[in-house]
User: What shape does this take?
Amino acid sequence: MVSEHEVEEFMLKTFPTCPICEAKTGYDVSGPAKTFVQCKSCKAKWYSLTLPQMRKSTNFILCEPSIDGKGKTILKQTQGGVDFWKNLKNADIKKTKLSLVKPVEFPSMLMIRFLELR
Assistant: This one.
């Protein structure tokens, strides 16, 4: 099983700056299977079922916006790969057209726990 430190290192390598606030403060890792990461600066939080596998093809869902509300327009509606989040600029957060990205239904906590235990 992967450690929190390994997931954080993967995140720092993948996203040296937060895609939402552009801070370089790093990420907190949480969840029984380490499927949640949260920016230490703005508190934006992402979910990825495949995050513990630490692959470049990992997709992320923004499940909590930043403390100042950035990301609210794409909250729980956008599943984006690494390139999507890297190319997202602060100005784009408000005007991102959801039709351009794959909409997803955010899994319930019960489903997340079931999938993590498999």
Observations:
- The chain has a mean pLDDT of 76.
